[in-house]
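Session log. Operator J.P. requested a structure for one protein chain; no other inputs attached. Running the standard single-chain path with token output.
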Amino acid sequence: MGRSHHVFLTGGTGYIGRRVIPALLARGHRVRALARSGSEGKLPAGCEAVVGNALDETTFSSRVPPADTFLQLVGVAHPSPAKAAEFRAVDLASARASAKAAAEAGVSHFVYISVAQPAPVMKAYVEARAEGEAAIRAAGVNATFVRPWYVLGPGHRWPYLILPAYWLLELLPASRDTARRLKPVTLPQVVATLVAAVENPPAGVRIIEAAEIRRATRGG
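Structure written below.
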């Protein structure tokens, strides 16, 4: 595994955060997680809670040090085209706030859950996440962008019904790259990918697409 890391995490009470925090702790990393006032009890045991607003870096930036890694997981639950305004008000705003806080704190590595791009649908969602990536790049920190399209897991299983369509599209040269980029990944695969990203910081910017996420573990 190498050295342990001190991770500051946003979105710790969410769908992915509740799973990745125990995985990081089990690997010997220290985790400090941001939570809204009153939500501290929803964080997994073992991590240190920081009360603040993910959309306003002034409420938490002073608590980022001495973290060397910033893990950004905030996002609107169950994305859909009807939530275009929320993607900018929550997903993008939180990414910008986190990028600013991480840069001010001297964090050396920023890990960001983004989304597969380009994509033929969910354009507002893709645009918000792409702008989030741009804000992190502009902050000048080394970064890993993890780009799943859809994460299969508890409460998120309906795409299993269309997996055969992805397999067929992968057989056709004209649609192979798009199918591989947009094919759903599993929650265990994403958690393993994030842990590996924390433990293997890049020099510059690294992008992890769905095909690489699917290789992270045979679980799921």
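Operator note: The beta strands are 6-10, 30-35, 48-51, 69-72, 109-113, 142-147, 151-152, 185-186, 205-209.
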